[in-house]
Amino acid sequence: MEMSFKGDFEVGIPRSDTFELLSDPQKFLPVLPMYHSMSQKESDPSVSVVKVKVGIGKVHAIATTEMSLKDNAAPQRASYVGKGNVMGGAYNMVVGFDLEETASGGTSIQWDGTTQIYGKILSIAGGGLRGIAEKEITKVISSLQDALESKEHFEAISAQAQM
Fold first, then answer.
1. Structural domain spans, the chain
2. Stretch 125-129: mean pLDDT, rounded?
3. CA-to-CA distance for 17 and 152, rounded, in angstroms?
4. Largest Cα–Cα distance of the chain, in whole Å?
5. Which CATH fold topology does 2-161 show?
6. C-alpha count within 13 angstroms, C-beta hemisphere, residue 51
7. What is the pTM of this model?
8. Which of 113, 123, 148, 160 could lock 95 by a disulfide, CB 3.0 to 4.6 Å apart?
């Protein structure tokens, strides 16, 4: 099953700072609301092994994703590719952020993401998987908007999540 999502939002911090935060997995990933932990893959330090908490109804688990920065075009675009597994299923994902300066000195963020999901998780979630995904993506985007209130605020949230 493939799902694609996209949207946009604005933040008050400059594009260069926004890019710096979104293009660094060590800073970006811990601000996600379902963040659990992160490490670097031993055989390839450019790959982050990210664990996030997921739930479908009363069934909860930890999803493990190997994620790496695909596009690093400062300060216009950052994108990530990943593959992982959860609840007897597997997935591939791509997520990207296109950044533009606003007239007020902030940043307009156009985001897009595609996920392909396979396996047992499809039968666990039934036909409600897209609705569940939309709900979780809304939480992620709200979390990013809040975290990008200021560079200092973003880094404080990121540091707190890593404790």
1. 2-161
2. 71
3. 10
4. 48
5. Alpha-D-Glucose-1,6-Bisphosphate; Chain A, domain 4 (3.30.530)
6. 10
7. 0.88
8. 113
